[in-house]
User: What shape does this take?
Amino acid sequence: MGAYVFPTDTEWAAFLRARPDLDEVNFWLPSTVTFKALQAGERFLFKSKAKAGGRLIGGGLFSGHVTMRVSETWAIYGEGNGCDSPGQLLKRINLYRARNKQEPDPDPTIGCILLRDSFFVEPDDELPVPSTYPGSAVRGRGYSADNGEWSYIEEAFAQMLLSANVPILHPDSDAASFIDGPTRGEPRLFIPRVGQKGFKSLVLSSYHHRCAISGAKITPTLQAAHIRPVSEGGEHRVDNGMLLRSDVHILFDAGYLGIDDHHRLQVSPRLRSDFGNGDEFYSKSGEVIDLPDRKVDRPDKDATMWHMDTIFRAS
Assistant: This one.
């Protein structure tokens, strides 16, 4: 288990603090520097940028890190980017870029630390940063269970959750992350999963903005498809998703297309008999679809077999 404390833009925090319903947010970075300090479901803590060391002001659970253009992150997260318009988001990012002597860009690519179940505490409930936190840490600091201040990080996160009145969520909720503890009702981590917006962002990035079946690259037409729907026990996990063109997504959900346990495209004979069409897909039948680079992100065998057994129109 890990945690990370990161200095937080004052305007970003103030905007989201006033909108507690936006619990799935994009903690954006003005550059494309990667962030690999956490695994999905681990704690991310917001630290104010006050001169006297700052305070812990809230946090959330880490979903993942991707790079996206400003237009893409606005389309997915909207006000979850910490501002009320894409123009304001672009302006703030270009201000940071200017400080780093980078040229303005009408649609720059930025780093996106994707968070779910985010929350903020009231000023009176803010907590001190860990005593060893380096005041000069522009990009924050990570903590793990073998760190001497790990117990403080755990206690601080739990205390802020209680102070923020974070609701106890049911395990079957798409946003489930905390359930009652065995004694005092203190929150504890539940099954790590990403939120719906995080799922879309991570699938888009993992498939390199390209439809896994058709190869289409027109981003507005691409959708993050669940292999096993959430309504049928599926989760917002990259290995339960594929990036598909919108019409391909419809055909997959309707059972006219499927993926076998070797990631090969399967095309139902019903596609031709029902519609007298489908040559685009029959020509690729039996071929391995375009897959993410990381094996862990590729379609899960159990999910694809569930789809083939339950949804695919074999005849």
Summary: The CA atoms of residues 98 and 104 lie 7 Å apart. The radius of gyration is 22 Å. The first helix runs from residue 10 to 17. Residues 168-191 have pLDDT under 50 and may be disordered.
